[in-house]
Amino acid sequence: MNEYLAFTLLAITSFFTLINPLGVMPIYLTMTSELDKDMKKRTARKATMVSFITLVLFAITGQLIFKFFGITIDSLKVVGGVIFFLMGQDMLQARLVKTKITEKEVKSYTNDISITPLAIPMICGPGAITNAILMMDTANDIALKGILIGVIFLVCFATYLILLNSTRIYDLLGETGNNILMRLMGLIVMVIAVEFIVSGLTPIVRTMLKI
């Protein structure tokens, strides 16, 4: 029983930290500022659903997919780190400006941003994917595997609720507070990006030096 509880707590804390819905919120607010309430809800729902499906898919078949295509987690960390760094730089300099869209473009726009950058790589990034693969490997029985999938769903659902209420949080903080929040989150995202790049490059460089 203690094993299941410890595994559950570890899964919840690690996934919530790596997904970081509060860090996704400024980008979601900015990119959906021109959408109505229903489209914002649809965007948040699709982004979290895509993230859940992606994480479960990688948890179940991650290692097989990586081996088939010859992809390594380290390479994924480097690419994800670069994407995070560029986004964090824009957030730090408050350059994520409101996107002007026409009524005809709303549907395609929400489909585009819900998949990327919201679902991938902001919600379902290299860290979360790596965590899903590694924790599935440590799950020794069906019960633990079921708990892991349940935790992924729980965290994605919590992210959905946070995104839905992001406007209220924005109103509570005000424009100045949100600008400060965006810059702080941008700095955090950039720090995370550096960590991903370093942790990805280190084993690659070591392997190259051995050759």
TrEMBL record:
Pfam families in the record, alphabetically? MarC
Stored InterPro entries: Multi_antbiot-R_MarC
Q: From which residue to which does the signal peptide run? A: none
Bilayer topology: Multi-pass membrane protein
The keyword Transmembrane is annotated on this UniProt entry: yes
Q: Where are the transmembrane segments?
A: 6-29, 50-69, 75-92, 113-136, 142-163, 184-205
Localization, UniProt? Cell membrane
Q: What superkingdom heads the lineage?
A: Bacteria
Q: Which UniProt keywords apply?
A: Cell membrane, Membrane, Transmembrane, Transmembrane helix
Q: Which family does it belong to?
A: Belongs to the UPF0056 (MarC) family.
Name by which UniProt lists this protein: UPF0056 membrane protein
Organism of this sequence? Cytobacillus spartinae
